[in-house]
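Exercise: predict the structure of this protein bound to zinc ion.
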Amino acid sequence: MTPDARPLAEVKVAKLKDCPMLTAGCINPTTLHSWYSACRRYMKHADKKADEIISIVADTMMEPRLMTWYQAGQARINKLTLNQYIDELAGLVLEKKWDHKLWQKILASSQGDQAFIDWKIELENYNAILTTSSPSYALTADRLMAQLNANLNESLKGSLTMEPVLATSFDACNKPADHKYLPKLTDQEKQLLNEHDGCTRCRTFYAGHHSDTCPMKASGTFPDAMNYRSLTVSMVEAAKPRVAAAFVKAAPCDDNTNSYVSLSKPTPFTVPHLYAALDLTGPAMREFPLPIRALLDVGCPAVIISASLADQLGLRCYDLPLEEDNLSSLLDALLRCREYVRLRVRLGNGKWKSGTFRAKVNTGLPIPLILGLPFLATEHIVIDVNLRTAIDKRTGYDLISPPLLPAPPMAPPYAPPLPTPKKVKPPTPITLEEASEPALVGYLLPEPIVALIREHIEVLTELKLMNEKDCKFKEKFRDRFPI
Ligand SMILES: [Zn+2]
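Solution:
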């Protein structure tokens, strides 16, 4: 095969979801790798299935030779997987032993005058082509690392011997290099900028603007290529916005002894912090609440608990989102917080209770608990520094000087209780059958029996009276009643 002198074919992609196109022209290993990557991205973003992808992308090859090849074997080629298709294409378009030549090119490559990062990316790309289309020639990650290490330019080799620790990961190579132009953002850099509110124009994390509103865009400038460093996670860490959580050890001072300037009411240099005496409970502290003094701090943008207090209470720690590890002291020392806890606090024997809130955990915090703005805001606490009060505006309860509990009323003098009257059992009614032999004395008989006897006597008396009257009338009117 004679070397193809035509211009290189190009892979054109309008949008991730649009089918890529391979223009007519000479195809080298790099072009083939781009074509493979574009087809894979299209398959992923357009949600195409593995068994339909070739029938779509093979139709967009504009090289006449490849169009003929595809049309001749369309049914067979459509059934190939993407890798099989690329392999077959490689056999058609790449010069013989291209993989061996590319492999030799990697082994023979040296950094020379190139920026390290550019050279490294170039070799990684070549190796990726081998991995895709001729895996037997591809270098392992370690082998590639050794290859890079052995072929650095002299000045970089010198710096690496000064920085042996970094040398293993090549981070040391990522110094401001002799860039003649600004390198393109890598996918990893773009992702970092995206995740940390960065601007892709000025390449700054937490920039506070986007690339379309970037001052560099307005002025038509770019970051300085000579001093440019590739963006890394440690740069993100350094660029994180930090907020000061202020607390100082301070005692009120008394300057009455100084009479040099007579002020009717001198302003204090220092005013004591505002503390609330709280009772805390937790899984390890259920029975007797732990009394602590918490700092009420309107200057602190977070609620922070010392790791030792969280431990003492046995609170469960949760992972704090990375972007919330954003505190520093006024001395600019970082207040590292990797975890948070959930807790509630009580005051005045439970007269006032907070809701459940989250506190960042800091090891070595000089104060057990700082109740910063999130707590004060959620609990509706209004701090009056002049009166030194911190009042829950919903209930009027003052967290700094809780109202005294009303004293229990005086107990009345002891009076022995009156004896409990004996319970009178209601008599169980007795029937005539159950009754015992009647006593001679009628009044000793049970009431129902007496009643029965009385009723019977009355009936008998009535009968006798009626009989007597009957006899009297018969006697009186004898002549009228024939016998
Ligand atoms: Zn910008």
